[in-house]
Amino acid sequence: MTEILVTGGAGYIGSHTCISLLDAGYDVIILDNLSNSRFAVVSRIQEISGKTVTFYPYDAANELELEKVFARHDISCVIHFAGKKAVGESVHMPIDYYRINLNTTLSLCTVMQKHNVKNIVFSSSATVYGTSDIMPLQEDFPLGECTNPYGWTKWMNERILRDIWNSDPSWSIHLLRYFNPVGAHSSGRIGEDPLGIPNNLFPILLQTAVGRIPKLIIHGNDYPTPDGTGIRDYIHVMDLAEGHVASVKKCLSDSGVNIFNLGTGKGYSVLEILTTFEKTIGRRIPCEIGPRRPGDVAICYAGTQKAETELHWKASRDILSMCKDAWNWQSQNPFGYE
Ligand code: NAD
Ligand code: UFG
Hints:
14 strands, single chain, alpha/beta, binds uridine-5'-diphosphate-4-deoxy-4-fluoro-alpha-D-galactose, seven-stranded parallel beta sheet, three-stranded mixed beta sheet, binds nicotinamide-adenine-dinucleotide
């Protein structure tokens, strides 16, 4: 069986990806220090898939711990999710963000190289495009200026991984640029469980619906969009998970640095999401219009042709199923994994 190491595999995107990897017949090894997740996730992955995963509560920046994992397993490919991801927090804690998000990749690649494992799929973000006015965003667009330290860590990780390939072209590196992952596994057993007060639209809608947050503030209704609110490319997390399986499959037979947008290619406004979500739960969500949020762009959506052609993958779940599955998770687990 082909063994895949998933760093950050107990996290939101990682846990859903583990399900898709197990469904596709891969053996999964999760390495996660649980700094932003819980062990219960690992049990739930096993419960949903009916399969066993190997779990290491290790730090992805710790070479000694990584050594133990690579010595014990015959790893074919690594999916590297581990890291910190909160945009606002990164502005206040830049040292932590640069240290953790860069050291995890550097340590991981050091140990991978030592064990001659040279296939890696990296979690990047559409944030590396900066504030482009041209949509859809295509993989060959020049990288932009990021608006926060978190974004720069993704930008720098992409640079580091390219330089590793420049030094040794036998590496196969996939840089996956995610758009806005939302939703949950249809079982409602795993989903997004942000620690502290969330900043992203879906977690805020969900927590408002279960009464944990009093209301949604819409960040600006004066953007140059049909209803004045910001437009984003929301992608169901299970589509994203399946995109990783397609990427792993190709990464194992590729060499070089390959970049793929993982989005749907369609944009929805905040008001469109709000209306669909209200329809899903059958009631209104308290909300008010506030000022624009600094750093936000009006419109952002992916060019999807490259992933369709080269990965043979296309997102298929619509915005209604994103809302339904997100609500199924949150209504069954109003306080997440607690
Ligand atoms: P998450 O926080 O839910 O998952 C990250 C996981 O990594 C957590 O389980 C955490 O405990 C673990 N982790 C953190 N530091 C670690 C370390 N040093 N060693 C081992 N484990 C560690 O986040 P997510 O939403 O699942 O995101 C996964 C990846 O995708 C991240 O790299 C994130 O930056 C990237 N990404 C996420 C989004 C998004 O909107 N969620 C968008 C673009 C890119
Ligand atoms: N929004 C609100 N009110 C809120 C939260 C969000 O109106 O309380 C709006 C935003 O202004 C934006 C849209 O909802 O128009 C989506 O905002 P999110 O915060 O959910 O997502 P972003 O597009 O701002 O950010 C996401 C990820 C980042 C990533 C970025 C670029 O969270 O990690 O996409 O791909 F960097």
